TrEMBL record:
Domain of life: Eukaryota
Record-linked Pfam families: HbpS-like (PF03928)
InterPro entries: PduO/GlcC-like, PduO/GlcC-like_sf, YBR137W-like
Gene Ontology BP term (one): post-translational protein targeting to endoplasmic reticulum membrane
Organism: Papiliotrema laurentii
Protein name, per record: Uncharacterized protein
Gene Ontology cellular component terms for the protein in this record: TRC complex
Length: 186
């Protein structure tokens, strides 16, 4: 079974086995490296996340998300709200901010950090990752550039769905714009 199918099975069956989830998340992070990242790249990816959300969830009033793509130098390259109140509220931005801080501090996806902590029986608050400053839940994904292994340059954020779905929406959207990962010189 492919990793995408395995992860979809996890989503469908609500599997919480950390030994199953962690290698899949780590592989997402290992494989997803952008050849470069511009405002145009962020707009295209953010728009794809929005479109894929609408494709999956329609304009259902009970679901909504916030999307942001930020660089760690302070630039917010993309920002959107999809859905209506009460499905989307100001608290979603607080969660997105916490996920961004988690990715910035750990250089890992916020889902991976949360699963690693849970697997070790640790609470985020006891690991110097207190909420709301940090959010160790799915929906924050690092923007890595190929050949730059020191740290990610930014973060892709989704908040509003269950954490596995937030994470998977990002990964599936990146797959739809996978040409952004390709080296343009080849």
């Amino acid at each position: 079974m492919s990793q995408a199918n395995t992860f979809q099975t996890i989503l469908n069956n609500k599997v919480t086995d950390h030994d199953v989830i962690l290698p899949i998340i780590a592989e997402h992070e290992r494989q997803i490296r952008f050849s470069g990242f511009t405002a145009d790249s962020a707009f295209e990816l953010g728009s794809t996340i929005r479109s894929l959300f609408l494709e999956r969830y329609g304009s259902a009033g009970d679901k909504g998300i916030v999307i942001a793509i930020e660089l760690f130098n302070g630039h917010r390259l993309f920002s959107a709200v999809v859905g209506h109140s009460p499905a989307v509220a100001a608290g979603n931005w607080e969660w997105a901010h916490g996920k961004s801080n988690t990715v910035r501090k750990t250089s890992k996806s916020s889902l991976r950090v949360g699963v690693e902590l849970a697997k070790g029986g640790k609470q985020p608050e006891n690991s110097m990752l207190p909420f709301p400053e940090y959010a160790c839940h799915g929906g924050g994904f690092p923007v890595w550039i190929k050949g730059v292994d020191v740290a990610p340059i930014g973060v892709i954020l989704v908040s509003g769905l269950p954490q596995l779905e937030d994470h998977q929406l990002i990964v599936d959207s990146i797959a739809k714009v996978s040409y952004l990962l390709a080296d343009p010189s080849k």
